Amino acid sequence: EAQLVESGGGMVQPGGSLRLSCAASGFSFSTTTMNWVRQAPGKGPEWVSTIYSGGETRYYTDSVEGRFTISRDNVKNTVSLQMNNLKPEDTGLYYCATPWKLRGQGTQVIVSS
Description:
Layout: E1 3-7, E2 10-12, E3 18-25, E4 34-39, E5 45-51, E6 58-60, E7 68-73, E8 78-83, E9 92-97, E10 107-111
Parallel strand pairs: 2-10
Antiparallel strand pairs: 1-3, 3-8, 4-5, 4-9, 5-6, 7-8, 9-10
């Protein structure tokens, strides 16, 4: 059974950092483009970042460019999101997802003073 499990969320002050991880199983992770998506309270899902299967090609939504870094380990079957200089507007439920809409349960990020 294909599965994604996120971890690493928490509460931080503005300007702080968090590293999210997503563990994949049950499908060919090394050949799959992976995405991070977030959903703020009361809002719809927002795409955050994409990394292609080989790891060299990465994309970010404008609001996180220069602050977030997506990476992957195709041996450990994980994809990570390093988030620096966090802002209150980064608050939300973060989840990883495949192009065919498999997603995990998400991990909560709260940025507040």
